Amino acid sequence: MICYNKLVLPLAVLLLFFQSWMSYGQQDADFKELLETIKKSAAYDAIKVERIDSLYQLLRLQQEGDLKSRFDLNRSLFFEYRIFKQDSAFKYGIQSKNLAEELGDQRLIAETTLDLANVCVSAGMFSEALAYLNGTDPDHIPEDIRFSLYGLLGRCYSDMADYSTITYFSERYRKKAQEYHQKSLELATPNTWDYFMLRGYLNYKYGNLDEALVDLKPSLDMRQDLRSQAVVNSVLGDIYVQLGDREKAIKHLSQSSIADIKSSAKENLSMIQLAEFLFQSGDVKLASIFIKKANEDAEAYGAQQRKIRVGAILPLIEEQIINQVEKQRERLSQQNIMLSVLLVVLLMLAIITYIQLRRLKRARQALLVAHKDLQIKNERIVEVNETINSKNEELKSLNDLLLEANKIKEDYIGFFFTQDADIFEKFKEFKTRIDHNLKTDNLDGIKYLSKSYDLKKEKKKLLQSFDEAFIKLFPDFIDEFNSLLKEDEQIAIKDGQVLNKELRIFALIRLGIKHNEIIAQVLGYSVNSIYAYKTKIRNKSFLDKKDFDQMLLERTRLKL
C-alpha cells in the first residue's frame, strides 16, 4: 500500500501538468487561428462586396421588371447587408417592404416589417424598433413566424435593460424581455434549432447556466452555417466566462469571432466579449488587438450600443499599454545603470590586474638576479619560473576575457544608450502631441496618435537592432552555434531575419545573461517559453545538456 501511494502522487502531478500544458497549447492554437482570420478579414469582405455588387447590377436590370423579381433582389440585398452595414440594410429593407405592400402579400409584409425591426435593434435604435414591432398586429403575422415577433420584442427590451443607467427602467425592461421571450418560446416549433436556441438563451440570460448548456451544445451540430455557429458559440463563450472555465470560454468566443469574420458580420459581440475577458485576465496585448477589430466593426456597421461597450474598455486597454511602455523605459534605465556599475567593476579589475602584472614583473627581475647570485638554488628558481609562467598564462586568459567583456560592454552600452534615446525622443514627441491635442480638445487626434503608435513594430525594431549589434560582435555565431547541433537539426535563418527566437535566447546567454527571468523580460516572452526553447535546442545537440552552455562560450568567438 505504501509503494502504491508513492507511485500515485507523482502520476497525479504529471497528469495535472500534462492537462495544463494541453490547455495552454489549445488556447494558443485558438488565438493563432483567430489572428490569421483577422488578417484575412479584408479578403472575406471583398467577397461580400463582390456578391452585393452582383445583386445590385441585377436589380438595375430589373427596374422595369415584375414586382416579385424586384422584391426578391431587394430582399437578397437586405440579407447581404443585414449584419454588414445597418444603413444599407435599412434602405433595402424599406424598399422590400414597399414592394411587398404593392404585391399585397401579407406574409411578405410581416416578414419585411420584422426585418426592419431587427436592423433597428442591432443598430441600437430601440424606439424605432418598438414602433415597427408594436405597430404590427400579431394576428396578421403567420403562425410559423409569429414567435419571431415576440423574440425581437424580447431582444429589444433586453438590450434596453443592458444599456439603461436607471435601475427603475432597466428592471421594467428586463421583466418585459422575459415575458416576450417566454411567449416566443411557447410559439416556437419544438425540437427545432430555433426552439433549442431560444430555450438555451433564456436559461443563460436568467442564470440557469447548466440548463443552458444542455440546450446550446446540441444546437451547434443542428446548423453548420457561419451565422448560426457564431451566435451559438458567442452565448456558450459567455456562459463559460461566467463559470470561470478559461479554456472553453476562449475556444467558443474565438470560434464565434472567426465565424463572424468569415461571414463579414460587422454586427457582432463575441470579439468584444473576448477582448474584455482577456483584459480582465491581464493579457493586454491580445485584448488590444481584438478590441480594435471590434471597434472597426462597430464603426463600419453603425451599432450604437456596440460603440458604447467598446468605448468603455478601449481607453483602459490603451492606458495599460502606455503604462507598460513606461515600465519598459524604466527597466531600460535600470539596465543602463547596472551596465555602468559593471563597467566600473571591470575597470577596477583591470587596474588590479595591471598592478599584479607590475608586481610579477618586478618579482621576475628579482629572480633573475637571484639566479646569477645563487646557482645552488637553481632548482627552486626553475620551479618558481614555471609557476610564474602558469600565472602568466592565466593572466593572459584573463586579459582575453577582459578584452572580450570590454568590447561587448562598449558596443552594447552604446546600443542601449542609442535605443533609450530613441525611445525617449519618441515618447517626448508622443507626449507633446497628446498635450497639444488635449489643449485643443482634439479627441480624434488623440485616437489617431494612439492607433498610430505600433508597439509591436517598435519591439520588433528593438530586437532587430539587438540582432544586428550582436552579429557585428559575433559574425560567425550562427555557423559556430550549428556546429554544436546534430547534422539534421541545424538551424536555418529565413530571408529577412538576422536571428530567430532560439538563437536570440542563446545570444543573450553568450553575453552573460543566464537567468530565464531576465531573458524573458528582455525578449518579451514568458519564463516557461524561455525554458522550453532552451530545452528544445539542447535536445538537438550531440553534447551532454549540462555541457552545452560551456561549449557555446568556448566555440563562439568575438570579433575584436
Task: Please write out the topology.
Elements: H1 2-39, H2 41-61, H3 67-81, H4 86-103, H5 106-122, H6 126-134, H7 143-163, H8 167-187, H9 193-205, H10 209-222, H11 226-243, H12 246-262, H13 270-281, H14 284-301, H15 304-373, H16 378-439, H17 443-452, H18 455-473, H19 477-482, H20 501-510, H21 516-523, H22 527-539, H23 545-555
Helix pairs in contact: 1-12, 2-3, 3-4, 4-5, 5-6, 5-7, 6-7, 7-8, 8-9, 9-10, 10-11, 11-12, 11-13, 12-13, 13-14, 14-15, 15-16, 16-17, 16-18, 20-22, 21-22
Transmembrane segments: 337-357
Pfam family, one: DUF6377
Domain DUF6377: 260-520
Percent of residues in helices: over 70%
Structural class: mainly alpha
Q: Roughly how many Å apart are the termini? A: 65 Å
The gross shape turns out to be elongated
Q: Strand portion, in percent? A: under 5%
The tally of strands reads: 0
Integer-rounded radius of gyration: 35 Å
The number of helices is: 23
Order of SSEs, N→C? HHHHHHHHHHHHHHHHHHHHHHH
Low-confidence stretches: 1-24
What's the mean pLDDT score?
79
Main sheet record: none
Write structural notes for this entry:
Keywords: Coiled coil, Membrane, Transmembrane, Transmembrane helix. The chain has about 550 residues and is mainly α. It has a domain at about 455-555. Helices cover about 80% and strands about 0% of the residues. The chain contains 23 helices and no strands. The longest helix is centred in the middle third of the chain and has 70 residues, at about 305-375.
